[in-house]
Each structure stands twice: as structure tokens, then as C-alpha cells.
Write a structure and sequence with these properties.
Length: about 425
């Protein structure tokens, strides 16, 4: 079986959990004897292609057709993908390869150009244009490759999945890693919301990372419940458990690791730190990550006078994450709305007790984690205080938490996804 998979990130070029989850699932699927074509906006050449063949959308040639009318109709532009004429607005990212042909018929000039789009593959000011261009490229890719099923990860790739389905007639599964209600709360971006809704409506199956996310899809997007399957995320085992990262300090360390943005609740972590430090001034708090709330958080830390006990590391990836967790005594995830949350699994894998918000998908499957409401800073502070002051409690969560997370490997959700592929193909 061949899978055409669309994603926006692929290691080592990732910015958070989405890229980690996509690669982990791909590794698990490869063990089920699948051939995976993984499409990203931009391929750098240093990606691990042992479990998937990577296709960079920036390297795919497309035909751009321009119709210039002498009458009042003006000008129209299309991308021709397998005979499907897709309207588009071309910006400076289209690179012509020099092969041009022109036909003139009465009041119409027809210009044919061959070229490709350039992509940054990031989340900057050109994001919407790149999402649109990526979807156009997807149609071309669907004409050039054989595959049995299409799998699109998160809203950035839903339009690409829809176009590939239009071209090929093959079934489409969309993976709901997060919703606009998770990312933006009450201030929903209507454009993103509409893309998410259209993707789920056009898909043959929706894969949600938790029951929490599934419920949002049902209640906010009005997707039929029977169409949605919950597929929990997982975590990779440590590559080298013998590797030792020295702590070099006697103080206890409490860590937050994630994007410093509203969804992740970093402001609650700061208030919790303030409460704990009133009782235990020898504790150090670490915030690892970047995000749009960073300056606000730094300012609040200064206002509370805890700057000498609070540290910012910036974005961590790969072994840096394990190194940070290895010297941590408690990991805290105070997310306001977390569709799943892989980072607590990474912490437990490193024998670190975790305190997580009840408003997270991962809380549905973890038994050996302390669960609190994200807004309850006193309960969170008490949980941290208990773990740090009662060694038996910490050891209990270390031992049983590690045992619990060892069974949450990517082969498990991969088998569930493979079964869904089989069901979709059987219905074609």
C-alpha cells in the first residue's frame, strides 16, 4: 500500500509537536509495510528518509497559464495540474524556468509558463499564500505518483489533500492535531476555521488526537461523530539511555517546555513559580521555548522579583530536550487547551514526574500524572511542593510513570491508522 502524506514540518526542521508527531507516526507506519510519500513545502536535503520518501513542493514543476483579454474581462491565471485548471493568484514566489509559449486568438492571448514555487515552509507573513501554493502543487503531485490513500496533517495541508483527492479519486484522511479554538481561544481566525471545516467535511475520515479534540470537531465544526476516529499520539523510546547529562547544581528544577503562547498557559506557570518560591526559595524554574508572549512573561517575572530563580532557554530540539528534562525534578504543562501534548510523555520517558492540566488530551490516557485545572495555580503549586518535599511521592511517579509511558510507542497508533487506511480503500 502506498500513502501520499502531506505535512508542514519534518525533522530536523520542526518548531514543535506537529513535526514530532508526524515523524513518529510515519516511523510507526513504516513498520506496517507501507510505502509513504511525504510532502513538505521545502526540502532541505538533510532529512531522514529511511521511513519515507520526501517530496519538496518547492521542487515540483507546474504549468502556469495566463489568459489576457483585450476586452473588459482583464486577466485570469491558472495552474494546470493533470487537466484540472486551478485558479490562482501568482506572487513573486513563482520561478519561471524559461519555457514559454504564447497563443493569440482574437481578443485572447494565452501564455504558457513552466516553473515552480519557492517556499519558506514557515509561519510568517506569507503563510496563507504558501498554503494556497502548496495546495496547487499537491494537485500536480497527485498526477505524477501512484498511491492508494491520502493523509493530510493539520489545517495547513487540508486544501492540498482535497486537491489530491479531486485529481486521483482516492480516499482522504485528515489528521486533526489542533483546532483554531485551541490556538486562538475566543478570537478565532475565521479563515483558518473555514479551511479546517472544509477539510473535515471533504475527508472520508477525520483522525483526532484525543476525545477532547473529537468533541470540538463535533460541537464547533458540526462533523458527524461516526466520521471521527480518536488516535492518540505516542513517544519514541530514548535512543541512548546510558547517556548521562550532569545537573551541576543542587537546586531542584521545575520545567515548562513548549511554545510561549496563550494556548500553553505560560502566565500560569509564572504565577505558580511565585507561590512555590515563597515556600521553597532554593527551587529554580525553567521556561524552554519561544513565542509571542515571551516579552510579556519576562516582564511579569521581573515584576514579581523572581528573575534570579527563573531562566529562559529559548527553543530546544532533539537531544537538547532530553538534556533539559534529565536535569528536571518536575515537569509542568499548564495548557489552557491542549489537543494532546507529547511533552509530558517525553518527560516521563526521562523519569520526571509531571503535572498536567485537565484540559489536555494526554490526560485522558495517563494514570501516573498529577492533573489540575490550568487556572488553579494553588493546586499546581501544591503538587510541585509535594513532589519536591516528599521523595517517596516523586519516586512513585517516576517508577510507574516510566512504566506507563514505555507502552505508549508509535507502533500502537500506527496500527490503528493502518486499519483505517484498509477500511477506506475497501470502500472505494
Amino acid at each position: 500500500m502506498k500513502v501520499l502524506m502531506f505535512g508542514w514540518e519534518y525533522p530536523p526542521h520542526i518548531t514543535g509537536g506537529l513535526g514530532t508527531a508526524c515523524f513518529g507516526l510515519t516511523e510507526g507506519l513504516a513498520l506496517t509495510d507501507l510505502e509513504i510519500l511525504f510532502v513538505v513545502p521545502k526540502a532541505y536535503g538533510d532529512e531522514d528518509q529511511s521511513v519515507a520518501t520526501l517530496i519538496g513542493a518547492d521542487q515540483v514543476k507546474v504549468q502556469r497559464i495566463i489568459y489576457e483579454y483585450a476586452s473588459s474581462k482583464g486577466r485570469q491565471e491558472y495552474i494546470n495540474a493533470g487537466g484540472l485548471m486551478l485558479p490562482c493568484v501568482i506572487d513573486e514566489s513563482f520561478v519561471s524556468l524559461g519555457q514559454t509559449s504564447i497563443k493569440e486568438n482574437h481578443d485572447v492571448k494565452e501564455i504558457h509558463l513552466e516553473g515552480h514555487f519557492s517556499f519558506e515552509g514557515k509561519y510568517g507573513n506569507r503563510l496563507y499564500q504558501e498554503v494556497n501554493n502548496y495546495a496547487l502543487i499537491a494537485a500536480q503531485i497527485a498526477t505524477e505518483h501512484d498511491f492508494d490513500v491520502i493523509h493530510a496533517h493539520d489545517w495547513l495541508t487540508y486544501e492540498a489533500g482535497i486537491n489530491a483527492k479531486k485529481i486521483s479519486g482516492k480516499p482522504l484522511a485528515v489528521h486533526l492535531h489542533a483546532t483554531e479554538f485551541d490556538r486562538s481561544g475566543r478570537h478565532v481566525n475565521q479563515r483558518v476555521f473555514e479551511i479546517e471545516k472544509r477539510g473535515m467535511e471533504q475527508a472520508d475520515r477525520v483522525l483526532a488526537v484525543s476525545n477532547l479534540t473529537k468533541q470540538i470537531a463535533v460541537e464547533k465544526y458540526h462533523i458527524p461523530e461516526h466520521k471521527i476516529s480518536t488516535i492518540y499520539n505516542a513517544v519514541k523510546p530514548l535512543e541512548d539511555e546510558k547517556e548521562i547529562f550532569p545537573k551541576n547544581i543542587d537546586d531542584k528544577v521545575v520545567t515548562f517546555l513548549g511554545r510561549i503562547t496563550q494556548q500553553k498557559g505560560p502566565e500560569y506557570f509564572v504565577e505558580v513559580a511565585h507561590l512555590v518560591l515563597k515556600q521553597m526559595p532554593e527551587v529554580r524554574f525553567v521556561m524552554a521555548g519561544n513565542g509571542d508572549m515571551l516579552q510579556q512573561i519576562v516582564k511579569r517575572v521581573a515584576e514579581l522579583g523572581i528573575g534570579d530563580r527563573f531562566h529562559f532557554t529559548g527553543f530546544l530540539k532533539g537531544k537538547e530536550v532530553d538534556q533539559m528534562l534529565a536535569i528536571s525534578d518536575v515537569y509542568v504543562m499548564p495548557s489552557v487547551s491542549e489537543p494532546f501534548g507529547i511533552s509530558p510523555l517525553e518527560a516521563m520517558r526521562n523519569n520526571v514526574p509531571v503535572v498536567i492540566s485537565k484540559q489536555s488530551g494526554v490526560s485522558e490516557i495517563l494514570k501516573y500524572a498529577i492533573k489540575v485545572d490550568f487556572w488553579d495555580i494553588e493546586a499546581t503549586a501544591n503538587a510541585i511542593y509535594g513532589i519536591l518535599n516528599y521523595p517517596g511521592l516523586g519516586k512513585l511517579f517516576q517508577k510507574h510513570g516510566r512504566g506507563e509511558v514505555d507502552s505508549l510507542v508509535w507502533e500502537v497508533p500506527a496500527r490503528e491508522v493502518r486499519q483505517i487506511y484498509d477500511e477506506l480503500i475497501a470502500c472505494v
